[in-house]
Amino acid sequence: LPLLRKEMKNGSPGGRQLYVYDMASGAGRDAAFLAEELLCSSVSGDGVQFHVTAIDHRYNAKQSNIVQNFFERRNVREVTSVVKGNLSKWEAMREILVSARIANGGADGSSGDDASSHDIKTTDILYCVRFLVRPLIRALASCSLLRAGTIFAISHFCVAEVGSVWPFDHPSPETVLERDEMNDLFAAN
């Protein structure tokens, strides 16, 4: 949320667009929270537009309706959407990103028809909470579909120090992040 608020304040003369993707969003609570907070933000009326997309492999028609109804009850339905995607496969996320580019007017976020649309600053924000699929994360780190300045955030279990051992039974050590693993991966790309 602090990163999103900071991005909302970094406007441009033509306005600001944020596209937020909650990967492995489950019931959509985190997506709803972010949408609520962004709607209530003091800068949301300053030419800033945003959209939060909840992505999960479980979103069949029934589950999608449950999440959409939840968004409706939280009064964020107009700024949210639900997408089914098997995030254990990079191709699913790639397809979601390609579809978003088409829906949002291309790689720069503009339709190309309006000269003022080139002044709009667009940022993608991707995040996941307690979801780690390393091949997907590696693919995102080197993905050419993401705009310059894309923000990727992950909230996950991590060892305390470089080279230390995970001292708990759950989650299993191979599903825990190494210290600086994300930083090293994204800095290399």
Characterization of this structure:
It is built from 6 helices and 5 strands; from the N terminus they run H-E-H-E-H-E-H-E-H-E-H. The protein has 189 residues and is α/β, with parallel strands linked by helices. Strands 3-2-1-4-5 form a 5-stranded parallel sheet.
Summarize the structure.
The protein is α/β, with parallel strands linked by helices and 189 residues long.
Number of helices: 6
Overall radius of gyration? 17 Å
- How far apart the termini lie comes to 25 Å
Q: What's the count of strands? A: 5
Mean pLDDT across all amino acids? 84
**How much helical structure, as a percent, in the residues?**
25-40%
* Cα shape: globular
Structural class: alpha/beta
Strand order of the largest sheet: 3-2-1-4-5
List keywords for this structure.
alpha/beta; 5 strands; 189 residues
List the helices and strands and how they pair.
Elements: H1 2-9, E1 16-23, H2 29-40, E2 48-56, H3 61-73, E3 80-84, H4 90-103, E4 121-129, H5 134-141, E5 151-155, H6 181-187
